[in-house]
């Protein structure tokens, strides 16, 4: 039996669009109004000038364009006029990596609203895609991390296990009792 499902947005149209049209589609599809509203009501310290919506848009643009750092997001805004316009920045008033970092810190302070934003997306996906989440696929790509996971006091307790390395699997370490 074949079921035709309605997508969140037309995938072929998404693929056919240029980068900033994609950004506009994603920003429009994200249910982030409650989060943006809460951030706009928050008392901001420092100079005024960057809108919450612009900073949010810049971070989303960075994710879509695979920026690896906040400095990469700034470089994207500096070199791509259309992305700058979608985010609401002028050539002379692009936020610094530090400004984006401060915004990201404020964003993390509203983790509950951010989580609700993503939960609403999943909820919408479940309505459009019956059986969404019924099966799980896991990517086994090696992720390089800098941690001392096998020491008595690891810097990251979750880094105590791994699965890469010539068929060798090391699960969570267990303390041996003697």
Describe, in plain words, how this protein is organized in 3D.
By secondary structure, the protein is mainly α. Helices cover 48% and strands 0% of the residues. It folds into two domains: 11-128, no CATH class; 138-178, no CATH class. Helix 4 (52-64) crosses helix 5 (70-79). It is globular, with a radius of gyration of 21 Å. The model is unreliable at 173-178 (pLDDT under 50).
List keywords for this structure.
single chain; 178 residues; mainly alpha; 2 domains; 8 helices
Short overview:
With 178 residues, the chain is an all-alpha fold. It has helices spanning 11-16, 19-29, 33-41, 52-64, 70-79, 81-87, 97-108, 111-128.
Topology summary:
Layout: H1 11-16, H2 19-29, H3 33-41, H4 52-64, H5 70-79, H6 81-87, H7 97-108, H8 111-128
Helix pairs in contact: 2-4, 4-5, 4-6, 5-7
């Amino acid at each position: 039996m074949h079921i035709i499902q309605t997508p969140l947005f037309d995938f072929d149209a998404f693929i056919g669009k240029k980068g900033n049209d994609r950004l506009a589609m994603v920003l429009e599809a994200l249910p982030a109004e409650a989060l943006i509203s809460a951030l706009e009501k928050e008392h901001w310290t420092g100079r005024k000038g960057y809108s919450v919506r612009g900073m949010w848009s810049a971070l989303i643009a960075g994710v879509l364009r695979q920026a690896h750092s906040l400095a990469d997001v700034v470089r994207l805004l500096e070199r791509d006029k259309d992305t700058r316009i979608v985010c609401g920045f002028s050539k002379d008033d692009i936020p610094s990596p530090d400004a984006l970092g401060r915004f990201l810190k404020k964003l993390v302070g509203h983790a509950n609203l951010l989580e609700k934003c993503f939960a609403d997306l999943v909820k919408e996906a479940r309505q459009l895609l019956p059986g969404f989440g019924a099966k799980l696929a896991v990517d086994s790509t090696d992720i390089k991390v800098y941690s001392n996971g096998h020491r008595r006091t690891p810097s990251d307790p979750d880094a105590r296990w791994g699965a890469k390395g010539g068929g060798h699997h090391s699960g969570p370490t267990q303390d041996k009792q003697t």
